[in-house]
Amino acid sequence: MTSDKLKQYIGLFGGMLGALYLALKASGIEVPFLMPDKLDAWQNFATSIVPFVIAIYGVYKNTYIIHSHSKAQEEYLKENNLK
């Protein structure tokens, strides 16, 4: 499975769950584990972790000491006065 297909599946299931949740709320059916006070905790967690993950990924992608091909790229940049 490619990453593109994985993203499509995540979007598909996320959309279906969102539509199901809205349909249940419109019908007056309350799901106890989807109460706003419980969802707020997960929302706070997500808004905290997403920037952290993005920052860690940026540091990882801009580090030249992790992989051998990254070291070769760093040498190339130094040879051509680009770093």
Automatic annotation (TrEMBL):
The keyword Cell division does not apply. Keywords: Membrane, Transmembrane, Transmembrane helix. InterPro entries: Holin. It holds the Pfam family Holin_SPP1. Signal peptide: none annotated. Its main location: membrane. It is found in: Membrane. The chain crosses the membrane at residues 9-29, 41-60. GO terms for cellular component: membrane. This is PTS mannose transporter subunit IID. It comes from Staphylococcus warneri.
